[in-house]
Design brief:
The chain is mainly alpha-helical. The protein is built from eight helices and no strands.
């Protein structure tokens, strides 16, 4: 009887021991598994954070590169527009010069005096007194060679308005800006109501603007600002005194460029906006819009 009881007791004790052992092993495995899961989650979070940081850095670098490229392209475009504006001014000057020469040749063909040309050489007839001084009061036929051609103008009346304007313009085209401005001022003094008066006033401003560029290229920095400031004043006179002149929008645009070089962007923006609003069909208006867009992004 006691043998089965002992066996049963041992069996029960053995089962209890196995259960305890089995239970302890399962909890240890579970804790280890939880630790591994937590470590994996932390590693995943770190990997995700590293990936996001790398992506943000790549995007930021790409944006910086793109911004730099856009700025370079915008700068190049602005320089090209300035070059085009200068070329347009030069072409306009050449056209005016050719027009003046054509008109002078036409007068010569019609029998007009050769004094219409701006060259200093004397004309074939003895009437060589065509200077910038007021015309003499002597009868116009006193110095005329007989017989006078039908319809010819007597040379003793002095230079015509177009002659003074053309001579000043040719001086400007040769780079003699001071001499050209003196000629245009003489033209305005004599003929303030002439149709070319607004053009003459514009070229005075352009003369100071050109002298500023010459000074800058020569390294004479102290002369640049005074020349630009005088150019601004002369350009403003075009709109103030000759608002219907064909040079009014050009004067506004060049005034704005001079103001930008003088570090006065707010005033330059006002002049450009006035140009766009009041001269929508002018050739300078698209350039003014481009400049305004650049100023508003700065």
């Amino acid at each position: 009887m006691w043998l089965p009881a002992v066996a049963l007791a041992l069996a029960v004790a053995g089962c209890t021991s196995v259960a305890d052992v089995t239970g302890t092993a399962t909890q240890s495995d579970l804790m280890q598994l939880r630790g591994e899961v937590a470590a994996a989650q932390q590693a995943a979070q770190r990997a995700r954070s590293d990936a996001e940081t790398a992506a943000l850095r790549a995007i930021d670098a790409r944006l910086r590169t793109q911004t730099t490229e856009n700025e370079r392209e915008l700068t190049a475009l602005n320089r090209r527009l300035d070059g085009l504006a200068t070329s347009l001014t030069e072409l306009s000057a050449r056209l005016e010069e050719l027009s003046a020469r054509t008109e002078a040749l036409g007068r010569q063909v019609r029998g007009g005096p050769a004094a219409a040309t701006p060259t200093p050489a004397p004309t074939p007839p003895p009437r060589t007194a065509a200077t910038a001084t007021p015309p003499p009061t002597a009868p116009p036929t006193a110095a005329s060679p007989p017989p006078a051609a039908p319809g010819a103008r007597p040379a003793t009346n002095g230079l015509q308005p177009q002659d003074i304007y053309q001579a000043a313009y040719i001086d400007f085209s040769k780079g003699s800006y001071a001499l050209a401005m003196a000629g245009f001022r003489e033209f305005l003094r004599r003929y303030p109501e002439h149709p070319l008066a607004g053009n003459a006033q514009y070229w005075i401003g352009e003369g100071y603007y050109s002298q500023a560029r010459v000074a800058a290229n020569a390294g004479q920095a102290d002369r640049v600002a005074p020349e630009l400031e005088q150019a601004v004043q002369e350009f403003r006179k075009v709109l103030a005194n000759y608002p219907r002149s064909e040079k009014a929008p050009t004067a506004l645009y060049k005034e704005a460029l001079a103001l930008l070089e003088l570090k006065q962007p707010a005033i330059a923006q006002q002049r450009l906006e006035y140009l766009v609003a009041n001269f929508p069909q002018a050739e300078e208006t698209p350039l003014a819009r481009e400049r305004l867009a650049t100023l508003k992004t700065q």
